[in-house]
Amino acid sequence: MQDVAGSPSVGAPRAASTSTIGLVNQAAIVEALRTQGPMSKARLGTLTGLSPATVNRLTALLMAEGLIAHQGVEASSGGRPPVILAVVGSALVVAALQIHPDRVSGALIDFDGVIADRMEEPIPLDGSRTGLELTHAVLEGLVAAAAARDTPVRAIGIALAGIVDPHGNISGLDSGRWPPLTVEELVGGHTVPVIVENDANALALGELHRGVGRSSPHFVTLLLDRGLGAGIVANGALYRGARAAAGEVGYLLVEPSTSARRFHDTGDLEARISAAEITAQARDAGLRPDGELTAMEIIGLARAGEDRADAIAARVLDELARAVAALSSILDPEYVVLGEGLDREADFVTPALEDRLTGRIQRVPSIVTASLGVDAVLLGAAEMATRAANVRTAIH
Known about the structure:
The chain contains 12 helices and 17 strands. It has 2 domains: 1-211 and 377-396, ATPase, nucleotide binding domain (Nucleotidyltransferase, domain 5); 215-371, ATPase, nucleotide binding domain (Nucleotidyltransferase, domain 5), CATH 3.30.420.40. The chain is globular, with a radius of gyration of 23 Å. The two termini are 13 Å apart. Helix 11 (346-357) links the parallel strand 16 (335-338) and strand 17 (366-369). The protein has helices spanning 22-36, 41-48, 52-64, 131-148, 183-187, 199-210, 268-272, 275-284, 295-303, 310-331, 346-357, 376-395, and strands spanning 2-5, 39-40, 68-73, 83-87, 93-99, 103-110, 115-122, 153-160, 163-164, 169-171, 181-182, 193-198, 219-224, 228-234, 237-239, 335-338, 366-369.
């Protein structure tokens, strides 16, 4: 198995200068077509640095394998019109997984970003099936589904609500559903490339290559499910920090009284908007939820006209504004991208954050929803896997 844990964003492979590593050049062609769109052989040569003869030879091989195909011709300025080539995205499939605190979601996604199949399994609190068992079950189900479609999985991308350090150790998962584990234990014995990444970072990578990153090289992503996390893109690259823990904004210290406390499983800011804290506040306010209420659920109740939820929702938004203020003041992002959880109430959350930030920080960034939609984290995991597949092609 080739594990790539928390690996950096990989750009289009550059063409090799010798014929002994022709696979590198094939990967360069596929990546250029995938990221830049259909183009002529001449344009491919310009982007990859390959000679016309090499482009002709390698594109013929890729066409024979069914990985690229003709897609019309360009208008001719004289002579034979140039043929346009494009990646056959449906011929190249990766498996993408998102590990939530309470469930495992997975999808088969082709190189065009189209979801071909889905699977999801809840993680029971009673321990009858562990998160690790269910991750393996979802992954094996996706691999089997891909094989049945005659499009074997080329790589695997996994996004999770935790931290993957440079040594492949995973921390920060719900301790009630997950034991301490490593990347190797998480993914099992697969022979294709595997990338495991924090979910906010996966969202950031997806947006970098397929979303707001096309407009700006400086942005942050923000997720709020049962935890709060951020992904940071600076100068067009994902920033992870020395121990892959950059963006853990839930550990921001909110007020002087926090110096008298110690935080272990969660940080100060995150504890203030945790499901346990929100539920306790809701009960104090006279609400009687059937189970735990999350921060986004209390915001939804306030929007629906539940007056007893208003003050709690306002406090949640205050804490979120603190996180955005810290990120904005230190990083100066052009965009803050609202991902899973926050995107459901973006038309309410966005103006509320802007109001709390205006006049209090030097520059309020543009607050937008994830351009990749409700599946943004899964698509980000697929983008990681797709790039890992091209690296694997280059290496092998």
